[in-house]
Amino acid sequence: MASEPYCRSMPDRPSDDDVSRQILGVFMRHRIPATGTLQRNYFFEVRDSDFQRGINKAVANNWITIDLRNRYRYQLTTTGYAVGQMIDPALRA
After folding, report:
1. Which of 17, 74, 83, 86 has the smallest set of CB atoms within 10 Å of its CB?
2. CA 42/CA 29 separation, integer angstroms
């Protein structure tokens, strides 16, 4: 009777690189300069299930650093700022 399977497959998960670019995009939309910081609550648009993967990839790419005293504070590096400018040139300051 039922033409659709009972259990649907999960929608495609964004790659780690895609999520790290979303995180970088948040810095760019808020016009954060190189060495500027943002708290975790600014990243509400990045899905919680993807957030840690994106943070890890952004740190591995040297785009951001995690504050040693507050793990919920992230600092944009000069490399991250340069890459962010290339991702979305419309947001240039």
Report:
1. 86
2. 10
Q: What angle do CA 13, 88, 66 make, to 5 degrees?
A: 65
Domain residue limits, the chain: 16-91
How far apart are the C-alpha atoms of 40 and 42, rounded to whole Å? Answer: 5
Q: Does the pLDDT value for residue 92 go beyond 60?
A: no
Structure token digits, residue 84: 């962010």
pLDDT(10) > 70: no
The CATH fold assigned to 16-91 is Arc Repressor Mutant, subunit A (1.10.10)
**pLDDT over 90 for what percent of the chain?**
77
CA distance 14 to 32: 24
Q: Answer whether 0.85 is exceeded by the pTM.
A: no
